[in-house]
Design goal:
This protein is mainly beta. Among the domains are: 124 residues, no CATH class; 114 residues, no CATH class. 4% of the residues lie in helices and 40% in strands. The protein has 3 helices and 25 strands.
Length: 460
Amino acid sequence: MSLRTAGSRHPDSVLLDRKAYLEDQVNATTAVGQLSTGEPIRITFSLADPPAVSYFCIHSPEISETDYASEPVVACSEKDMVIIHFSFRFGPRVPSFEPGLREYFIYRAAGCGKKPPSFKPIPYPGPDILMRPHILHHESLGLVPFDNGEFLLVSLSTRMSILDYVLLIFSSKTEQWTTKQVVVQTTPPIISSQSGVPFEINKVIVLGEGLLGWVDLWRGILVCNVLEDSPVVRIIPLPNKPKSNFRWKSSSYFEDSRSYDDSPHNNSPNLSRDVACNNGLIKLIDMEHLYREEIVTQVQNDLASCYDSHLVDDDPRVGVPRTCYVSDGWRLRSYYKHISSSSEYWREECIVHCDDISVYNPRHCLVLPELRAYNTGKLTLRYLISAFPFLSIHGENVVYLMSKVKFEGGKAWILGVDLANKTLEVLEPYSSTRAFFFKPDLCHYMFSKYLNPAPPPPPA
């Protein structure tokens, strides 16, 4: 839940929307930088206690919205540092297949009140580093901070083979990019089942000092100590999805009638999975959407009134029984594993069904009346459309979910569920414009606590 040091202005961590708003805002978090092409650019954060969503704004008086090839996005964050990726339609194209200028900036928080926030560019790697297929993608970037304020920015790049990876490394000390070839250590089952197919990186997590994990939420974690002269990548396989879990073929997956797709790789894993690490303990959350089969027969009254009568009579669906898969709730499974463990096995921590989660706070029903079941009057999460679980980075047994009453349009909500006590702890609204397609892009970061003034020294 929300953690905030007594007397602090900002929360110790935030649930940040990774995509920027192109708006002009200024507050105590604001910092100004300059692109390599000379244009000034300003960043401002608006911070809130989780699970309320924080966001950031980017503004430049010399850059219009049409100049952006895509929305600026947070690539990664550790300690007081946040890496922002920009892609523009103007400027030099490096590499040549990009639409225009690409830049990375580092935002550094105020350093416990000792200095103002800063926003500085990171030199982009040259063509000698970005030789195809070594592509620098912001989704594969991880940060390795050091106590002296220096850092490494690291990307794991592949040559389209599960056994052929290279590290692209930027050092803040030398301000240079270098590469390191890595050796992949794996087991025969991984090789045989995924031969020739590289991992798809969904997120990057810090597992220890210099130890990064590139996470494929369907398959496993690529673990590498990037500080070693001859780095080695080992693979930690993730538990398989439960057989009963459905996959969705299209954006209409939350309709009452769904098509079944048994291949997990056809869908975004963020719909149902997340991984986080705290103090050497890796946690996995798996959200299993449950369904029951129903046989329905289409009748004319079920069809849209806009059809002409002769079209209704000729509709092949009328009078034909068909099987529908109707939503029947969901459950959360959590697993854990110590990074130091040599075993490939994960321990199952708990299983929580949506019907077992207590909604005890009457305020929750006041702000969201749909929590009350129409047939029993019980407060329940069963009838909300819920997906996209993400774990707290503090190691507590809290899972955040995005929920909506209706899939198309309407307001979205961020729920905070305590798995240990099986309770709904927090309910906060989420931007309806960002939630329209039910594809949130949120991450849990800790840079916000470095914006707070340093605590006073203890009395003598």
